[in-house]
Design a protein that fits this description.
285 residues, 10 strands, 20% strand, alpha/beta, 2 domains, CheR_MeTrfase, five-stranded parallel β-sheet
Length: 285
Amino acid sequence: MDLALAAAERDLGVGRAMAAPGWVRDRVLTILEAQAARLGITAMRAAERLQRDRSAVEEIVAALRVGETRFYRDPVMWEAIASAVIPTLPQRPVAGLSAGCSTGEEAYTLAMMLAIAGKRFSVLGVDRSSEAVQAAREATYSAEAARHLPPAYVRRFCEVDGSVMRVRKELRSLVSFEVCDLVSAVPRGGFQIILFKNVLLYLATPAGEAVARRLLGELDARGVLITAASEVPRLCSVGIATARISSGVTAFRLGPRTGSEPPPPPPAAPAASGSGFPGGMEGGR
């Protein structure tokens, strides 16, 4: 197990080795056992082969990077974006980035929110998995995926047919997706909003912090980078400047940390969401 995690961290900056949580270790063991069964060897031998078999390491990394994703995940964060971030955005076209977009739900949720606010915008989603990116481009999900979205979002942005839901073409035209390994490179900015949520969990130190700093470098002067609440302390610990955007949400921004920011508070209770659908601007990244 430790051999496999060390190989993933050494070669691709993924895994967090000995600090990996239990679910990560369980998933790695499952992949190792499957590799061993295919080769007719023990799991220990399969782990030892990782030192010289990069494709086997890639298989483990791909399994680790398949995380949970859904529309409107973490309503507290989305409400903070709607009430405290979007109103401060410039009148010029807004560029948003979903870094580690998986199958696209987060990128489309951001696009829905920007459209409701009447902004001209483009949203780019990037992920290391070509299969996830293809699924995001198709924008077809189970109807159950809509259960977390506010009803007004579903009515205005989605087409539901029986058990299938698809994001409407008008919104899809404003969202693009690219295959990108964030450990190797990040998309060029400048972005006003970067969502970098539930990705640091999969990245070793210092690879994760380095990715966050490169993403911060692609923000415009007033842009914000938002992580999951559980990831805030990790970036605060290396001195990245914070920006409190609501009582329950702390983001990151360009510039030195002043040291005066209070520690992040516990998440607030979800608030009611808005509705409406002014149009956006086609184009962008």
